[in-house]
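Researcher: Let's walk through a ligand-bound prediction step by step. First, I give you the protein sequence. Second, the SMILES string for 2-acetamido-2-deoxy-beta-D-glucopyranose. Third, you return the three-dimensional complex as structure tokens. Ready?
Model: Ready.
Researcher: Here are steps one and two:
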Amino acid sequence: MINSFFLFTLYYYLSLLFYCQMEQSRHSTHKLMITNKSGTSQYISLFQAYSNIGYPVVWEKICLGPENSGKVEWSVNWGLRWETAEVEISPDVKFNSAGEIQVVHPMHREMNSIKVSIENGDFISRKECRPELAYGQLGITTTDFSEKYAKDLQFSICMESKPVYVMKGRPNQTLVINASPKFYIGITEAKVGAKFDISNAKSVADIKFSDANEAECVLDEKLNFIFK
Ligand SMILES: *[C@@H]1O[C@H](CO)[C@@H](O)[C@H](O)[C@H]1NC(C)=O
Ligand SMILES: *[C@@H]1O[C@H](CO)[C@@H](O)[C@H](O)[C@H]1NC(C)=O
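Model: Step three, the predicted complex:
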């Protein structure tokens, strides 16, 4: 007689395997056109905001050409990265991970999480598939290690391999981050990869995309971003 428990187990693992490798065909390309009518030179930065577990970093800085208008184009392509750094990221300090990007694809649900543990005194990381995470979610898991180790641990969510959001790592963490793309624009002196200090930034506005993920705005004399 065929063991139905065995069949069920086989079915379960096969579907898990299939689920974790499944590709979703949604690739979203975003386009943003900015015209500078401010009359002065400005540093225009793109960033993202999530919850209160970390902080945004300047993801892209726009240099406008001689005609004072410029275009940025990007596709939503997520990753996770970690590093240990003795300095807190600030508007003057860039997140500068030496670590390899952990390619996670919440849009593909293939390797949507990373797990960091300690082995022989060093941090090591593994990519994971967590089938319980919904479309567009990223996971971070850390094992039990002392606070001493965790002191300098940082994670960053990356888009097109560049950090867009940074958070502190702690032991025994199971984080789920909704990486649904919501983009903001603002004026800041901070470098790409450095903390975007929203309270010290000017003209922060959310980018209003059309259904085709395109947006067009003008920076006016009062330093307001006016979207079409
Ligand atoms: C913005 O426009 C002004 C002139 O309107 C120009 O002097 C300035 O350089 C421009 N800024 C950038 C970042 O291109
Ligand atoms: C992590 O969790 C384990 C088991 O619950 C606990 O014994 C340990 O103290 C925790 N470690 C830290 C640093 O919180």
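Researcher: And what stands out?
Model: Residues 36, 38-42, 64, 68 surround 2-acetamido-2-deoxy-beta-D-glucopyranose (ligand 1) (CB under 6 Å). The radius of gyration is 20 Å.
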